Amino acid sequence: VQLVESGGGSVQAGESLRLSCVASGATQDIGCMGWFRQVPGLEREGIGSIDSDGITTYADSLKARFTISRDNAKSTLYLQMNNLKPEDTAMYYCAADRATRDWGQGTQVTVS
């Protein structure tokens, strides 16, 4: 499975962004999908996930501002981020779980 993220960019604090992740290939085998983020020098942080039935889980620190959704017909995963803060600045990655986990190349989000 190939994953391509988009929607990142530079925004001001308090603004919103919606990231997308389009999957291609053996998408019928995908189960759970999720979003992660990483700041250089730090470990990759899990934001949340969504299973094939639409059940979501979130990191406690982010669930008030971030929402994950997916459109299985479009093989697309979304991350709605509201009230962005400078500490949300990171590279954002999507992941898809089959027998193994596939990763996208990431999209940069910068909040100033």
Structure in a nutshell:
With 112 residues, the protein is mainly beta. The protein contains no helices and 11 strands.
Determine the mean pLDDT: 96
Largest sheet: 7 strands, mixed
| Contiguous helical run count | 0
What Rg, in angstroms, do the CA atoms define? 13 Å
Instruction: State the end-to-end CA separation.
Output: 34 Å
Contiguous runs where pLDDT drops below 50 for at least 5 residues: none
Q: Note the run of SSEs as H and E.
A: EEEEEEEEEEE
Strand fraction band? over 45%
**Structural class of the secondary elements?**
mainly beta
Task: Describe what this molecule looks like in 3D.
The chain is built from no helices and eleven strands. The mean pLDDT is 96. The strands form two sheets. Strands 2, 4, 5, 6, 9, 10 and 11 form a seven-stranded mixed sheet that branches. A four-stranded antiparallel sheet has the order 1-3-8-7, with no helix packed on it. It starts with a strand and ends with a strand. It has strands at 2-6, 9-11, 17-24, 33-38, 45-50, 56-58, 66-71, 76-81, 90-97, 101-103, 107-111. It is globular. 0% of the residues lie in helices and 53% in strands. With 112 residues, the protein is mainly beta.
